[in-house]
Amino acid sequence: MKKILFLFVISLFALQSCSINSEVIYHKDSASTTMMDIDMKEAMAMFKSMIPDSAKNDKKEFGELEKLPRTWTSLYELEKKEGKLKTDNPDSIRIMKKVFMKSNFDNDELAGFSMKMDHFTKADYTAVGKLSKNEQLPIDQLAMNSWDGKTLTIDTEKLGLNGIKEILADKGISDEKAEMSMGTLKMMYKNIGTTLKFENKIKSITGKHDWITKADDYSIRINYDLDYLFGEEKDKKPLKNADKKIVIVTE
After folding, report:
1. Element containing residue 120 per DSSP (H, E)
2. pTM surpassing 0.85?
């Protein structure tokens, strides 16, 4: 668990011009699979061009990213291989075997990393929070919406980056500093988006929101407005469509 948080915090505060793209697959059995890709290719190139001597410590940290396997590997396998597995609790091990990570390379140059939470149920998401009392995963809030295998209800008032805010709180950052940290994300990230995919064809969509569009018969795309999320209140443009609930019914 610490490895996931550690790598996420590196990308959150040490780099600029990152992109986060996530995908949530809603399965017919009411479970969901979440994949998050953090693209740091441009940021890594920028970082390597800046003051190498004073960045030695950061380079050592980025070495942790390069050590990640290049294929999906469970958190359980990672910690067991490194001799850091500290639990024999069957429920914890079950969850760790469903959380996967991998590094991404482009022409043998580190480009970022990915995380996957495979076939999670509502009970699994609840159990994740119990694996560590002091740390949290950057879980896409959209994976937590109401899904019964046929109907998805999106609470648009929760369209944001609450997972990141929770991580900042867990790291002991004060409310004032947390707000400052969240404010810097607008400069750090190029774009943040999520694709929602369904195993069955979409039958109907009720409700509208400016950030949500239908991509095809099986998927919905959400593109976050970073100015709206991170900008000052006076600079935020009002949303034309902002229904509190979006209900997607599949066949």
Report:
1. strand 109-120
2. no
